[in-house]
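quick one before i forget lol
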Amino acid sequence: MYLEEIILNYDFNGVKKSIYEKYGYNEIINIVLSILEKSSNEKSQSNEHFFIALTFILDSYIFSDFNKKEKTNFKMVLKKNCFFDNISKYLYHEYNIIKHNTITRIGKFSISTNVKYLENAYIRSYYKNNPVLAATCLFEMKWLKSKKYNGFIRKLEKETNLINIITLGSHYTLNQYNEKRMKRLLNKCKNTFFQLFYDIDYEKFLNILENFDLFSTNIQYSNNIKEWNRYDYEKIIKYYIINYLEIYKNNKIDYIELYENIYNNIKNGA
């Protein structure tokens, strides 16, 4: 079996260091980068090979039989091969799934100097236009102890708009939310967007925030949408909040058909 096949058949049960002893660090890293490049160019929302290859590298560090010294050496080899420089370009990919996988994998390596990639992507690409990726990016920045993290949060709390509300709320849910902070955010929503939030209680607010990532992802996947601009996201958010209970009351509706119909309703201003 060729090395590329071995990597793409990874079963997520941990990586054995014997594969590195057989093929060498540099060869494996180069093959993984090649897989990432090829799969990122596929016009597909799933990009399964991208996820597998990136997880293989992460698990080589986290879920492998390397000892502590060997894991440290593995990180040094990744840096020497400019691995993180190479994958940072995928933070700006056309498909959200590629960007999301790249954000989380960079974060999970727990290399503090890598936080610069996430900070730059947050400012340049996610902050104003993509609340789901912005929330995920903030979560990983906090994990990596970003010095800019607190400033990003303060700015979101100061500038009240629908994008920032979903970003903050989604981020709070990822961080095992503080009830006092979540209720303060809900009160701000009621004060600023009364018609949208007037009948939403705390529990419903939590459910809305916890499911928005899945909702927006399903619409993009079902309709083969690469990315939305800020205006589109605001329309999606308004529709989602108003129709939340209606959307999820019937789980028997065909998955693809449901989200195709929802997107048509949004485009037509329903």
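fyi The CA atoms of residues 28 and 47 lie 20 Å apart.
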